Amino acid sequence: MVAPVVTVFRHRGIQKWLPRMFPCRQYATQVNHEPSKLRNMALMAHIDSGKTTLTESILLQSQYLSSAGSVDTGSTTTDFLPAERERGITIQSASIPVKWKDWTFNLIDTPGHADFGMEVESASRVVDGAVVLIDAVEGVEAQTKGVWRQLDRYDVKSRILFLNKLDRAGASFRTSMLSVLANRLHPRPMAITLPIASFDPQDYARAEPGIQGVVDLVNWEVWKYDSEGSPSVHVLPRTQAELEQSDLFPSSHPLVNHLLPARISLLDNLAQVSESLFETLIALPEDPSSYLSLRSSDILPHLRAATLRNDILPVICGSAFKHIGTELLMNYVGELLPSPVDVEANTKALAPNAPLRMLAWKVGWDKRKGWMTFVRVYSGTLKSQTSVLNATQNQREKISKIQLLYAAEAQDVDSLPFGSVGAVMGLKYTRTGDTLVGVAGGSNASSLRDIVPPPAMMSVSVIPHSHADLEPVESALNALARTDPSVRVETQEGQLLVHGLGALHLEIVESRLRDEWKVNFEFGRRRVSFRECLGTGNISGVSDMWSTEIGGHAVQVQVSLAVRALEDDEEGDPFWDGNVILTTDGKRLPPGDLHADLNDPLAQVARGLSSTLSSSPNTTLALSRLCIQVKKIDFPKEAHPSVLAGASAAVLRNIVRAAGQGDLMEPYIRLKISVDEGTVGRVVEDLGEHGGEVLDLDAADEELEPDVDEGTVYIPPQWLSPSTGKAAKSTSARMKRTIVAIAPLSQMLDYSTRLRALSGGHGLFDMAGEGFRRVSAQRTVEILQELGRL
């Protein structure tokens, strides 16, 4: 029996011909005002997992593009910065609205490199759902877990996993699923599609890599792709007997007898988190084929509800490079991920006349347009040529223009309704994380949850070419820090320092200063950002009074502080670089620039404390792991509250000086190194010589088998990905080994060069931040000598 066929026509010739005759793209002049059809979502993954390639494939399938660009040739839509095209990596997140069926996706392509974690941080704050990609050859990697934690931090519950690169040799659906469980990303990954490596059974026996189709277990369809990535969709028969006789697969194809068990597992596992579906399955006849009688309309409501509750993690597979699985992914993004209506707890925010409330999640700079502020509207409607109040900075701002950004291109719109993401022009004071509200009643509005920048890991001195270049360089650095809050600029002993998240981050900072701001400078030697803890000296006798002169009159200011070191089990505040600052009643005190009223005395105290914490009087290093409580402040009524900034800085400086130099801390990284077995000894020895510690040493191709409850999680067989089966393993010429280690970042700045020499060019590694650790007395002496303090 021949299964019914529904063909999806994708005439590439017509697609390429139309743009030449009609070169203007169809842009929206008004945002979709149906919030239930909006999907604010991000693509996130470890570097080189295929996010930008998937974005290009999505733009192609949605007919925004006539042909997909390539990361290798620097022709992608969302990687439009010169540095991105030159290096073939994503450096900044790029937002683009995508129309698909009756949905609108506000798609954000994010960087995968840990050095640009701030871009992922800000995107995580404003999306309602995410598609996390996994390279099916590598499985879960370091930054996969990093972006997963960022999504957890901002309570983005609903996610879809896309197993990419299944066309590559060594790709494994099974091993990727097991790596999700082994790394505890989610207890219930649920495969809703299966890969078809080939429609020729002999390719499975020969362990040929590839992917030629996808089985949709929910809609019970087969998507068969031609060499250009164009699919034809075939409806599968609804009984096992008809399935075995279908012309879709040869009778000897191994997948035929596996399809029914796969669907039974999907429905049984879904029923464990959906009582109503469980009752539906109980009512079915005992014949296993009865599971095939359920239509997608019977399954999708339960699948969506479970995804919104984060009870399950839907898993879809494909190859973005070959456009396989892209349309299926887009369908399920629309069906399963939440709309702004689903995640908004306050029903009043949904009303058409609700007061305006939005968050600035990113600030950008364009040579022609000037400052662009990316916003997400959480309540009301934003209209152009209106005024808003920055509730965080307590500053009034004028909206001159509203745009929808299509990566590097833009289209003007008149308004942004509830749930929308767009860019506004004309804002002078707004920074990343600020809350913007309507002017009417805005002074009483509370701020939305802020965006926390990751701590700096490395610094470099900036040396202007001449004295005349100093002011342009400082202005450029401050402008760059506004676009990227993970860049911190300070002056120490007359030297201009820039702090960033890593060596690559600082390289991009350098190139952006030259290319975008055209300033003349040189970077000095890179240096790891160390930290100093509080010393153990007696601080009880330190005075809390500070004297100064205002208008020729002596003024006494009192700032009483209770200062102690944080215990090991106490968590620091990321806004204060690992310190904890408390008010007199024990509440957390935000940094000075996050206060709505800068004339608030506590805002000025916060400014002063921040000044001293950024540069210890003992070593000039930033201070960390301090708990400071403001006990009492007193200053003359005729004095401006700004006098408290100088007083609090001086009092804390005296306390730190009296406590003496404390332990020093330096940043550590976690390394995952893959090398041939013959070079393992040399690599491990090198790690030990550079202060590293090996945590795990295993065979890279050893099958990962965590404890799996087959009753709750379906794990596909290994033969589903033939190039990872026994036949493939027997052809492996070399045994690969994986080394997991931690090491000081300062000793790993040139590790790519060292590993290349140690492994004969065959070694690979990736790294992720592991936080700060206290160093030994010997290492303390080395650091102080490096800083010129000994």
Number of helices: 21
Q: What is the total number of structural domains?
A: 5
**Total beta strands:** 36
Percent of residues in helical segments?
A: 25-40%
CATH top-level class of the largest domain: Alpha Beta
pLDDT under 50 segments (min length 5)? 1-29, 700-704, 725-734
CATH H-tier superfamily of the largest domain = P-loop containing nucleotide triphosphate hydrolases
CATH arch. level architecture of the largest domain = 3-Layer(aba) Sandwich
Radius of gyration: 29 Å
Biggest pleated sheet: 8 strands, antiparallel
- Range of strand content: 25-35%
- Tell me, what's the shape? globular
Protein name: P-loop containing nucleoside triphosphate hydrolase protein
GO cellular component, one term: mitochondrial matrix
GO molecular function, one term: GTP binding
InterPro entries: EF-G-like_DII, EFG_II, EFG_III/V, EFG_V-like, G_TR_CS, P-loop_NTPase, Small_GTP-bd, T_Tr_GTP-bd_dom
What does this structure look like?
- The chain is an alpha+beta fold and 790 residues long.
- Helices cover 27% and strands 28% of the residues.
- The chain has 5 domains: 35-345, P-loop containing nucleotide triphosphate hydrolases (Rossmann fold); 350-438, Beta Barrel (Elongation Factor Tu (Ef-tu), domain 3); 458-529, Alpha-Beta Plaits (2-Layer Sandwich), CATH 3.30.70.870; 545-662, Ribosomal Protein S5, domain 2; 667-705 and 732-784, Alpha-Beta Plaits.
- It is globular and about 100 Å long.
- The strands form 7 sheets. It has an 8-stranded antiparallel beta sheet with strand order 17-16-22-13-14-21-18-19.
- Residues 36-341 form the Tr-type G domain.
- Pfam families: EF-G_D2, EFG_III, GTP_EFTU.
- It comes from Lentinus brumalis.
- This is P-loop containing nucleoside triphosphate hydrolase protein.
- Keywords: GTP-binding, Hydrolase, Mitochondrion, Nucleotide-binding, Protein biosynthesis.
